[in-house]
Specification:
By secondary structure, the protein is an alpha/beta fold. Helices cover 31% and strands 22% of the residues. The strands form three sheets. Strands 1, 2, 8, 9, 10, 11, 17 and 18 form an eight-stranded mixed β-sheet that branches. Helix 2 packs across helix 9. The relative contact order is 0.18. Bound molecules: flavin-adenine dinucleotide. The site of flavin-adenine dinucleotide has 41 residues, from helix 2, strand 12 and strand 16.
Length: 461
């Protein structure tokens, strides 16, 4: 199994539990031991300490996206326009504010539980690296201002170039609340806290089938769990479930990491710990690590027929090359720096890039939370609240929140999804390559690009 830099760093802590064998009965079974599954389990135990909770995990906890991501801990403010359109101003504000407060709360949680996740709250620079990207944040910035919230502060170009360590950053704004973590340390820490709180975890235990009977039955290679309630928290893999197949599209995101270069970071000025993105749809996202590396990611957006997640979602040379090329273009003065690690992972894109919560049709006892769309490190903690309330049948602001049972735009059925997806992705790549060279993109590429699902942020045109 190809592992990320983050998971290699915690290799000593990856010893799996014994897989499930035989029959087991519990109150709630959670499929997937990533951030979403673990936060949900913890919240259920908090709301109902008598509730027996079992997590079934195909690999080890954190083996999926949670142990492979960029470690950006973000809010939902960049999606404030979409949230407002979806659930009205008051609920949008409540969710965005909760997602911002959640970032500091996550840091406090790590401190309280002795999780050394390298939590660092140094803000996120949302930048333009080409002319066409300039002011991409203007719409969100002014909507926040109209709502009385001064969230995104403009950063002067010279300060931006200094703090990001590269004059390729032309303009930008900062959302100061954002943080970074070493995500594998966070997810493995959550696993420890969950076990201590009484959650039972079976790793190397894929759910191969489930029956929607009441209670539900979930079959694994050597066992079976009977559960009153089920939470589906298996991210992009949930696209295997026919009812969710058109709600999410599993796409790749790819990260490369340099050798440790603390002295070079000092020399270029990127010492403040800021996380950075550009404003492409196939977004470049990058941050530094505690040992002085740069981890540079790209939304490489590869898709597969029928949304099957194969080995190319773990590691793919072509995707690594594309990602490295963007790193070299953004930091040409680090041309001699070696790349030591590279990996990919699946992202569960929803059409509007906001998560979707609900229960499967005619199965109120089987709930799901998918569609994190590349912003799940922070918001998964709120997702855990939503899923726990849904699973326990608790009526509160989380089970009633605007992201639950919402009407979503669906991806087309196969084979249109795959063939159309390839066409749109190629058009976006050509368009963004032209823009990177300050060339005018082909008309058809611009038209096709508009069919792509929306990105991590609500960008101004
Ligand atoms: C390369 C990359 C970079 C990213 N960067 C960022 C970032 O910087 N900031 C951010 O906020 N978000 C980022 N994301 C997204 C973020 O990682 C996810 O939104 C978040 O980790 C989702 O957590 P999860 O629990 O839903 O998924 P996962 O961590 O993937 O957990 C799902 C688990 O389910 C398991 N599973 C799958 N099928 C089965 C089955 N049949 N039976 C049992 N278990 C099963 C998987 O093994 C997996 O461990 C990134 C994602 C990737 C891939």
């Amino acid at each position: 199994m190809h592992r990320s830099l983050w998971l290699k760093d915690v290799a000593d802590d990856l010893k799996p539990t014994t897989p499930l064998s035989g029959e087991l009965t519990c109150d709630v079974t959670i499929v997937g031991g990533g951030f979403v599954g673990l936060w949900t389990a913890l919240r259920i135990r908090e709301l109902d300490p008598g509730c027996s909770v079992v997590i079934l995990e195909r690999d080890v906890c954190g083996g999926g996206a949670s142990g492979r991501n960029g470690g950006f801990v973000m809010s939902w403010w960049p999606k404030i326009s979409s949230l407002t359109a979806l659930c009205g101003v008051d609920e949008a504000l409540r969710l965005a504010q909760a997602s911002e407060a959640n970032i500091s709360e996550l840091g406090a949680f790590c401190a309280e539980h002795g999780i050394d996740a390298h939590f660092r709250q140094s803000g996120w620079l949302w930048t333009a690296t080409t002319d066409v990207q300039r002011g991409a944040w203007n719409g969100v910035q002014s909507l926040c201002a109209r709502l009385g919230r001064d969230v995104f502060k403009t950063v002067a170009p010279d300060e931006l170039a200094r703090r990001s360590g590269s004059p390729k950053h032309l303009e930008g704004a900062i959302e100061a609340s954002n943080a970074t973590v070493q995500p594998a340390r966070l997810v493995r820490g959550l696993r420890r806290v969950a076990i201590r709180s009484g959650v039972t975890i079976f790793e190397n235990t894929p759910v191969l089938r489930f029956e929607r009977s009441v209670p539900a039955r979930l079959g694994t290679p050597a066992g079976c769990v009977t559960a009153r309630r089920v939470v589906l928290a298996h991210n992009a893999w949930a696209a295997e479930i026919p009812d969710l197949r058109r709600t999410i599209l599993p796409v790749t995101s790819t990260i490369i990491a340099t050798e440790p270069i603390p002295e070079r970071l000092k020399a270029i000025g990127w010492t403040g710990g800021e996380s950075i993105t550009d404003s492409q749809l196939m977004v470049d996202y990058y941050r530094t690590t505690r040992d002085g590396r740069i981890a540079f990611g790209k939304g490489t957006g590869m898709i597969s027929f029928s949304s099957r997640i194969g080995p190319r979602y773990d590691q793919d040379e072509a995707l690594n090359r594309v990602t490295e090329a963007d790193f070299r273009a953004t930091y040409p003065h680090l041309a001699d720096v070696r790349i030591e690690h590279s990996w990919s992972g699946p992202v569960d894109r929803s059409y509007d890039s906001l998560p979707v919560f609900g229960h499967l049709p005619n199965a109120p006892h089987i709930v799901y939370g998918v569609g994190w769309s590349g912003n799940g490190v922070g918001p998964s903690r709120l997702g855990g609240r939503i899923l726990a309330s849904l699973a326990l049948g608790v009526e509160d602001e989380w089970s009633r929140c605007g992201l639950v049972n919402r009407k979503v735009k669906l991806f087309p059925p196969e084979p249109v999804r795959y063939l159309g997806g390839i066409m749109v992705r190629s058009a976006v790549r050509r368009k963004e390559a032209a823009e990177a060279d300050n060339r005018k993109p082909a008309w058809l590429d611009s038209v096709l690009s508009r069919l792509a699902p929306s990105g991590l942020e609500d960008k101004s045109a």
